[in-house]
Target: Vacuolar protein sorting-associated protein 45
Amino acid sequence: MAAPGGGPPAGLDLVAVLRSYLERMLREVGGMKCLLLDAETTRVVSTVFSQSEILEHEVYLVERLEAERGDQLLHLKAVCFLRPTRENIARIRRELRDPRFGEYHLFFTNRVEDMRLQDLAEMDVREQVHQVQEYFGDWVALEGHHFLVPLPRPHLALQPFAWDFGNSSDAIARMTEGVAALMLSLRRRFLVRYQRGSEICERFAQSLHHLTAIEERELFDFGSRGGGEGAPVLLILDRQDDPVTPLLSQWTYQAMVHEIIGINFNRVDLHKVPGIKPEFAEAVLSAHQDPFFKTNMYSNFGDLGMAVKGLVDAAGSERHSAREFQTIEQMASFIENLPDYSHQQGVTYKHVTLMSELSHAVERRGLMSLSGVEQDVVCQTPSLAAHYEAVQALVGNLAVDEADRLRLTLLFGLRYERDGQVQLAALLRTLTEQGVDAHRLALLRYVLKACRAEARVGDLFSDRSMSSRFASLAKQHLKGVENVYTQHSCNSNNYAPDDDHGLVHSTQTLQGVENVYTQHSPPLVGLLERLVRGRLPELDYPRAERNASPQAPKPPRLVVAFVIGGTTYEEAKAVAELNAAGERGEGWSAGVRLLLGGTSVQSSTSFLKDFQEVMVNERYAQ
Model:
């Protein structure tokens, strides 16, 4: 057996880090091979490598380790990329007892305990294991700055630890393993800070600190970088401190797709789209695989419509220019019937299909009027009477989807927790009279209680202090969006589909009024700014190292924000824009690299589903 080893990271682009690991594995093992994965490393590989890229490395077979055994293939070499779990070690032992492949090259995503290495060595009686390496890819890179450490039971991130001690402990261990592997990939040991008052944040911070600073201190000692650079910082946050961001309607491409359709590890399930071709039933949305998506993933809905028209124009002939098309359906039909279907035409069909689904949802659900009210409630100066009137008009309208009525009520309840109890009760009465299921109303009340102001640390609505209220007012003045209703009426009839279901109208409606629908800035942005500027209070965000000396004034040049309970694509967009500004030397993020991680990526649907699980578990915990 070869000794465990690794290599230097490929930089601070997280996709590049994982690609470098995989390319090195496949390059080192020459000849025909099988890539043997487990459930979690399948996600790791599929988000950074396409099938065609894997084939370029003489990989003739990709299999799951836990799948039923197939025929012997002794002419192939097995490249095993696996998490070093007890279950995987047992499966490899069974594999070595009756080998299917001629050679085994073992690459583990994390540190392998000596005892487990010994177990493997004892079973390798035929000496078919040619190497054992540790390549620290125990996390999933969605984008260059955005990663996940997925939990098998994501709702555990939102519920009290004592309700399910065993599974909650496993969740802490999984997060510790994943983030520790990231540190080893980046060759950095981080100063760990966490959100006060969050039990799971504190437990995770202490677990990670114990591993990296005490138990395996030498492994995580990468020396000082000097040059006035402050220690990298890992900021651990609780999703419940900001329940607003995952509940809002979204108006940029990636975030809209996730909110309306759903993205699962860069893949979109389109099986339910009427008439979809089988080969397009799953769409890959990956910035490193799709140049159009890379360019437009953060584009607003209006600009996106024009970009998709341009894509269709490029795929067609001059005679059939996209300028002739008035509807998305015409575009889709044209692309589908083009002769000599090329890869680029496939990309075009994918984006036209997605744009069609988004456009239909916007029109059917009246999302423009709904979103205008959402943004006004959570972003503008408190105006209880006006906001209640606007919310009541939509909640009382049965033409609005039930899920949207509940979501809007929840946002109103969060904003006016102290002063709007009478109005909230009236909204809940309206929903009850409409026949909304009692369990859904109970969920709404549960979320309001779990995310109440006294349980939060951050200033969610910029209204806790005189300075924050002043800053909020100044920001609104600069944006020039003092009143949403003077720019767009909230009458949902204004956004009913036109007779021709025109793409041009439905997307151009958004152009020129982007501020109305995207006023909201995730609180994460303010937290990161205060952290980089050295203004984030240690009383609210203490260090995991309890006896640490006062923090040095050197600003960090690398910051990882890890959100237990899930990130959002709105936050990922904000971090990407901060990094871009930093690369241009603009603003407070100049010279700073920001990374965003979490246990999942939330939409309003998934966020409420997680809380539904928590609410059910509460009954068993009592």
About this structure: The chain has 23 helices and 13 strands. The chain has four domains: 14-137, 143-242+522-618, 253-365, 381-480. The first strand starts at residue 33 and ends at 37. The radius of gyration is 26 Å.
